[in-house]
Amino acid sequence: MNLRSFFLKANNAPEKSGMRFGRHIVCKGCGRQLSVARLRREYFVCPACGRYITVRARRRILLLTDRRSFVEHDRDLISRNILAFPHYDEKLETARANSRENEAVVCGTAAVDGHPVCIFAMDANFMMGSMGTVVGEKITRLFEYATERHLPVIGVTVSGGARMQEGMFSLLQMSKVSAAVKRHSDGGNLYIVLLTDPTTGGVDASFAMLGDITLAEPGARVGFAGPRVIEKSLNQALPKDFQRAEQVQRCGFIDAIVPRREQRECIAKLIGWHTE
Ligand SMILES: [Zn+2]
């Protein structure tokens, strides 16, 4: 195959599944305009076509944890342009404005059905949830905090992969977080990961695949390289549902696909069984 095609930006990059206009969101599945209030009741799943609308990290945490139980950690850690990568500073500024977050992951402690947990949720609105130094550092610190206190960790992933603007420093985060997950696991602690659309690249190849229990949202794209790259290197057509959660589950990488409105109850049950 042509080596250049490895470096071409795929134009089938996953799009966000809902455009926000004031108090309304337009579903990209059916084009209907839905009020945020209605969607809140529906767990941000389109009641007309069933499409899963992308939700922000903070909303994820609200959907999964007990009311007002969340206490954030390391909110003030922000990325710097360590490699003087062209236009990275502007991109960070735009990402902060778009997501209203300082970085692509929100971490902290909370309770799920009364059980104390550590939780992190990635945010697709911040540079497609890409993993730079700060994302890796925040998640590592969370695991270390959880290991010391024997708390379970709940992780919600959504990411395009490692952050190219931070080069090798972003790739280093894969092993750094993985080592923290291992120490947490060696201490007999539970890690539940919830894969959401899309979980790809360096995140998929590290802490997204290291959970004791791996859950996923229906239809979520989960994989390392994009399907076009794989198709070209194998020189054969891929199945229609390639890298969708259902197909990945058939390959043995996912334990359960859980609809959004059942996720909180499912996680609470799993933690309950683990702490008995
Ligand atoms: Zn719809």
What can you see in these coordinates?
By secondary structure, the chain is α/β, with parallel strands linked by helices. The chain has a single domain (55-275), classed as 2-enoyl-CoA Hydratase, Chain A, domain 1, CATH 3.90.226.10. The protein has helices at residues 36-41, 57-64, 88-99, 133-149, 167-186, 201-204, 227-234, 245-250, 260-275, and strands spanning 18-21, 24-27, 33-35, 71-73, 105-112, 115-122, 153-159, 191-200, 213-216, 222-223, 256-257. Strands 4, 5, 6, 7, 8, 9, 10 and 11 form an eight-stranded mixed sheet that branches. A hairpin with a 2-residue loop joins strand 5 and strand 6. Helix 4 (133-149) packs parallel to helix 5 (167-186). The chain is globular, with a radius of gyration of 18 Å. Mean pLDDT is 92; it is low at 1-15. Zinc ion binds next to loops.
